[in-house]
Every structure is written in C-alpha cells, then in structure tokens.
Amino acid sequence: MINWFSAAKLGHHFIAEKLQAGDTAVDGTMGNGHDTLILAQLVGPTGKVWAFDIQAQALANTRERLATAGVLDERIELIQDGHEYIKKYVSHPIQAAIYNLGYLPGGDHAIITLTETTLTAIRDTLDLLAAGGRMVVVVYPGHPGGDREKEAVEAYLARLDAREYKVLKCNFLNRPATAPGVILIEKGGGRN
C-alpha cells in the first residue's frame, strides 16, 4: 500500500514503477540511507547504485542501514562528495535518480543542500538519465534557504523541453506552503 501523503514514499513509488533488477541509479542526497536502500533493493544484486553526501555522518548512517538490510555490497558505491560532482563518478546512462533536498535528518540543520549545487546536479543527472528514465526531486521549502531552492528547481524544470521531458509537480493543497513536495521528471523514449 502506497502512502500517497508522504512526499518521500510517493517519490519511491514513482521510481519503483520504472526501476528493474540490473538497472543503475543515483541517490543524490544519501542522508540516512532510506532512498539508497530502496534503490539497492530495486536494482537487485546485478544493478548499481551511486549515493552521494558531503557529510561523513550520512555515509556512516547509510552504511549501517544497508548492512542491517543485508545489501551492503559491491552494487552500492557510497561517495562522500557533493552531488554537483556526479559526472566525476558516473559516466554511463542511469535509469533512475532521487534527490531529497534540505538537511540530514538528525544531523546539523545548518548544513543544507544549496541552490547552485543542486541545479548543477539536476542538470547533470538529466544528462545521464537514459531514455524512459525517471528522476524524483523531493523539495523541502520549510527551512532557511529551502524556499529559494524549491523556486529555482521548479523554474529550471519548468523550462525543460516538453518534447523531451515530462515533469509532474505534486504538492499538498491543505498544508502550509512550507510542506514538502515531489517533482517527477521522466525522459522521453525508452521502455514503458
């Protein structure tokens, strides 16, 4: 059963519809490893997941979550670097990517994703996305800087060529404007 009213769970559903065993995926904001684990389970032992975060604590938390789930193996590459450097590590097409913007839950809330680096990461991830692939961006405008980042991400994605990309924005109508939202991007072509 899908929890349609959790931004992160809705993002997982959008990715799970497309990602298959043997595929490749990126978690652009590793955090506590929830998204990394979902991606690893979806791609299976023959797939590949690259997960990025700048904080050592995020890598430690993710490593522990993956080990507990029994999926900490060669299919997953945990990278302590900014997501704006994705092309330094990933050079071939990916089928899916997920970004949960903001800060590390349970971590230092002063360390946040930044508009400029996030836009670079999204642009480069779209370049890497295979035909028919999907990217999910979960935006959190409720923290300092989050509203600016959300607006910039939405403005960038709104300008994508509609013949090449489908972009869907999901927001909750009866929650404050600071509530998280989900943006789904699907690249044209590929498998259905």
Automatic annotation (TrEMBL):
A single GO molecular function term of this UniProt record: methyltransferase activity
Record's protein name: rRNA methylase
GO aspect biological process, one term: methylation
PANTHER family: S-ADENOSYL-L-METHIONINE-DEPENDENT METHYLTRANSFERASES SUPERFAMILY PROTEIN, TRNA (MNM(5)S(2)U34)-METHYLTRANSFERASE, CHLOROPLASTIC
Provenance organism: Desulfotomaculum nigrificans (strain DSM 14880 / VKM B-2319 / CO-1-SRB)
Family annotation (Pfam families): rRNA_methylase (PF06962)
Keywords carried by this UniProt record: Methyltransferase, Transferase
Record flagged with keyword RNA-binding: no
Superkingdom field: Bacteria
